[in-house]
Amino acid sequence: MFKNFDKVFKFTFKNQAKTKSYITLTVTLALVFLILPGLIMFLADYFKKKDEGVKDSGVKYVYVVNPDAPDADYNILNMLGTEYYEDIKYMNVETVDEALDYAEGSQDTIVLEFYEKDNELCAGIILPNDSNISTKEAGYFNDFIDENEQFISIFASGISMQELMQLSQQTESEIYSAKGYEAGKSLNDDANASEDIAAKAFKPIFSYIIIFASMMILYIMIASYGGGVSNSVVLEKSSKLMDTMLISVKPEALVFGKLLGIVSAGLLQLFIWIISIAVGFFAGFAILESRGSGLPIQAFFKMMSGLGLFSVPKIILAVITIIFGILLYCSLSCFAGAISKNREEAASNNTIFMMVLLASFYIVFFFGLSSAGEGLPLWMMFVPPVAAMVLPAALCLGTISFGAGALAVALLVGIAIAVTITSGRLYKMMSLYKGNNVKIGKALKMLFSGQG
What we know:
The protein is built from 17 helices and four strands. The protein has 452 residues and is mainly alpha-helical. The model has no long low-confidence stretch (mean pLDDT 79).
C-alpha cells in the first residue's frame, strides 16, 4: 500500500523547501524573531531609564520670592540629592520686579515665586528676558519642584529648620506576607519573595501574549499550507498524469507522501521560528542582566520554573499538538483535493477547511483571549480544531494539568489520524473516478457505503 511512499515524500518535501520564497521567508523571519525580543527589551529598559528621575534644566541661579518665609535658606534643596540640582545658588528677594532686575544679564537664572491661591501654596517660575533657559528646561525645574513638593511646600510655608527636621524624620515601613508576618520576616528582607510578586504580576500579560502568538502563528501556517495541500493532491488529476503514476505508486502512498511532505516543510519552518524566538528572548534577558536592569520580565524569567511554566513533559505534549494540529487541518484540505478533478473544484470544495479554520480562530479570539489571564476554558482543549490553536500555549503556560493535557492531545492525535486515513481512502476511491462532479456529502456516502 505504501510502495514508493518515501520517494513521493522526499520529492514533495524537497520541492516545497528548496524554493527561493520558502528559504527567504524562513531565514528572514528567523532573523527578525532572533533580534526582535532583545531589541524590544533593550528599548523598554532604555526608555524606562530615560524617563526615570528629573532631567537637567541648566539652571544655576534662582531668585526666590516668598513673603511667608523671606529668610528661609533654600540652598538646603541642594541637599536633597537630586542629580543636576545639587549645586544651585538660591537667593531671597522681596518682589518679582526686584528679582527680574537682579537677573538682568544672567543667562542661567530663573525667578521662583511662592504665593497663596485658594488657601493653597503655589509656585510659579518666571524666565528673565536675558535667560537662556528654554520653556522645556523650565519644565524640568518644575518637575524637580513637583517631585519634592511636600518638602518644599513645608519649607516654603515658613516653618523653622528645627521643626522641619522633626517633620522630616523617616518612618520605616515593612511589607509582610501572611506567613512572613508570623515568622517576623518582611518581604523587604526577602528578595526572592519580591521577585515572586513581580513575576506573578507579569504572568497574566505573558499568558495573553503567548496565547495570542500561538493562535496567530498557527492560523497563518495552516492557512498558508492548507491550500497548498489540496492543490498538490489534485495536480495529477488535472494534468492527466494519474493513469501513468498509479502504475508505480499506490494512491495511498501518493496522497500521504504529498500530505506529509508539505506538512513537514511547514513544521520545519515553524520550529526554526520558535527556536529563533526562544534564543532571542534569552539573549534579550542576558542584555538586561548585563545592564543591571529591573524590568518585570526579568523577575518573570527567573521565577518561570516556580510558576509551573514550560516544563519538559508539557513541552513535549505541546510539540505533538502542533504536529498533529497542523496535520488535522491539512488533512481536511487533502479531503477537498481528493474529491476534486481540478484546482477550481478544489478551491470550491476547500470551503469546509476554511470554515473550520475560521470558526476555530474566532472561538479562540472571542472566548479564549478574554480569559487568558485566568486560564483558558477547559472545553477548548477537547475540541480538536480549537485545541490545535490553544493547547500548545495552555500546556506551556501550565494552565492545564499534565493528565488532562495528555488526554486532550490523545484525542487530537486520534482525530487527526482518522481524518488523514479517511482522506487517503477517499483519494484512492476517487483516483480513477470518471463520473459526475462529487460533492462532500456524496463523497462521504460513497466512502462509508464502500462504493467507488
